[in-house]
Amino acid sequence: MTLDTTHLHAFILAGGRGERFWPLSTFARPKQFTTLFGGTPLLAQAVARLDGLVPRANVRVITNADLVPATRDALPDLPPANIIGEPMGRDTAAAVALACGLLRRDDPEGVALVLPADPLIGDVLAFRRVLGDVAACVAREPAIGVVGIAPTFPATGYGYIECGEPMETPGTPLRRVRRFVEKPDLATARAYIETGAYVWNAGIFVWRADVMEAAFRAHAPEWVPLIERPGEYAALYPTLPKRSIDYAVMEKAERLVVARGDFGWDDVGSLPALARQFPADAQGNVAIAPTYALDATGNIVAAEGDPRATALLGVSGLIVVHTPKATLVCAQEAAQGLKALVATLPPELR
Amino acid sequence: MTLDTTHLHAFILAGGRGERFWPLSTFARPKQFTTLFGGTPLLAQAVARLDGLVPRANVRVITNADLVPATRDALPDLPPANIIGEPMGRDTAAAVALACGLLRRDDPEGVALVLPADPLIGDVLAFRRVLGDVAACVAREPAIGVVGIAPTFPATGYGYIECGEPMETPGTPLRRVRRFVEKPDLATARAYIETGAYVWNAGIFVWRADVMEAAFRAHAPEWVPLIERPGEYAALYPTLPKRSIDYAVMEKAERLVVARGDFGWDDVGSLPALARQFPADAQGNVAIAPTYALDATGNIVAAEGDPRATALLGVSGLIVVHTPKATLVCAQEAAQGLKALVATLPPELR
């Protein structure tokens, strides 16, 4: 069976505030707007990499209401109505329920791809192929598809998905999902990787509206009114709990299939992760901004919207990030404290 | 004898480029222009603290020709002709010879104070009193006066002056100079301080034109044409060697008197010295710019002409300095390498 891509729909979830990426990510200009990676906003890259898979008219972005104007500016090729502003953050369960309601109303035979706004994808063709194969599978059978990420290191910052029996499907190998597991400690993460049976949960889901609706009805009925009346989302959102789709639905759903995505995915989830995306010089310094260094090793320097030069003298293992308003100077091993630091800042700097 | 201050003249030497203070000091805007200390340029403070001692009309500034416009802007109360631009840097011997020639021509009975442009002085009244007393002494007898600084720590960055027999003079105790010594190592500096007989050489000299001219004739005759024809300094400068007044004259001169200046002198000769001039918070951080810190201790943050906020996370012992063009991030113990780092910068950043 060939997939009819006119019935493929993408819902890009752009609701995060990215405090672990401050000051490149701020409340008013979160990470999906950064142009540090390749010169265009991550969000625009997320849309562009769907070209050839999902018609532009079928690409919707669900973001915070206050970010709708900036999102429309960043995505001039999308119909303005496709940028949907949530009145408040209610985590991914509400966003997926809203997507489900919109798909049910507008194209009940369609297949939805739910995608986060800000990861980088190295191999876009492989990415499209995997998504298309999973979409073809869920178009055929009443399962929710998940595209997991083939782990490249024992990450403790992601949830994992344990893969079960292989399925007999054409194209990308698919397996039943055995279980979703929360972020592990390092030893557990290492054990997961050794088995070869685990993938990272990257929040990429593929489903038909009827199947997702059934899963909500079975496991998370509070969200069903939003599926039934997506046009009333502004009024319904305040009544919903703040919960992730993983916790509300996925961990409990029974028919899940998973693909092992191996297409150079990187969510650059924290500032130290910048070093994975840019070359280092002979002293191990990663300069994503004009930098002059003497007796300095293993530092990361980045800037956005600020042409200043940075001079490093006798320092190691630092992250230095400039924006027009602020500079962060952070020890790489202390980067996990960034959220706590940001919480102490005055609102205009956050 | 009371000193007639209408015959007191000040020559402020503002020829340094201050590389150890980069980026607060740059080639085009050296340290004497910084307003970090009290909101007015250090040079303006150097002039203002002479009020009541030297008539404004008698205050001259000798600086680099390219800095004359900026110097006139910084000192709107001085007659523009009193800002003298050297065609090239020839160190302090040339500047003092030029001062000697100007004094000899314009007020041969006068007394000159030679002063550096950029030290901070905590007790201005004490400073004026000492200078006035030394001036009164050299007005009476044919000696060159030196105002040394009572050492507060065993500094290795200054030359020292060994004090000899006390003189019978009114006011500030004066002593004969036994010898000038070069910058010592730490052990020698400690030994100097223990004797109580040494002061720092801060480049503050007090003299009559005839006495200084005689000293040049005896020890540094190459500079005599400049003393005889100060109006031709632009043509004479290129013929002169680059030499300090200490080396050319002071170390060899025979009749020198020295006062022990104890008036809160600080030349803030390097960035770590900033910590001496500003209060530290409970974590030992010195914030001379808007700063937010978490798990950060013993850092110095400064900015000039740049309102940005600095956030410090998990870092210690750093110096972070912002200007509109550049940011320096420097380990305090590496600050002595700043000059070498600045040498690697493109000219527009130096």
Attribute tags:
homodimer, 350 residues, four-stranded mixed beta sheet, 25% helix
Task: Kindly describe this structure.
The structure is a homodimer of 350-residue chains. Chain A is α/β, with parallel strands linked by helices and 350 residues long. In chain A, 25% of the residues lie in helices and 25% in strands. Chain A is built from 10 helices and 18 strands. The first copy, chain A, has helices spanning 42-48, 68-74, 91-106, 124-140, 186-195, 209-219, 224-228, 233-236, 245-250, 338-343; strands at 8-14, 59-64, 83-86, 111-116, 120-121, 144-149, 160-166, 174-181, 198-200, 205-208, 256-261, 265-266, 286-288, 291-294, 300-303, 309-313, 318-322, 326-331. In chain A, strand 1 (8-14), helix 1 (42-48) and strand 2 form a beta-alpha-beta unit. The radius of gyration of chain A is 21 Å and the shape is globular. Chain A binds chain B through residues 22-23, 292, 294-295, 308-315, 318, 320, 322, 324-331, 333-335, 337-338, 340-341, 344-345, 349, and chain B through 22-23, 292, 294-295, 308-315, 318, 320, 322, 324-331, 333-335, 337-338, 340-341, 344-345, 349.
Radius of gyration of chain A in whole Å, from Cα? 21 Å
Tell me the number of helical segments of chain A per DSSP (H or I, 4 or more residues long): 10
Q: Look at the helices and sheets of chain A and give the structural class.
A: alpha/beta
**What is the 3D form of chain A?**
globular
Largest sheet of chain A: 10 strands, mixed
**Main sheet: strand order of chain A:** 3-2-1-4-10-6-11-8-7-9
How many β-strand stretches of chain A?
Answer: 18
Largest interface, Cβ cutoff 8 Å: A-B, 34 and 34 residues
State the order of secondary-structure elements of chain A, H for helix, E for strand.
EHEHEHEEHEEEHEEHHHHEEEEEEEEH
Strand content of chain A: 25-35%
Instruction: Give the overall average pLDDT of chain A.
Output: 95
Low-confidence stretches of chain A: none
Helix content of chain A: 25-40%
| Alpha-carbon distance between the two ends of chain A | 50 Å
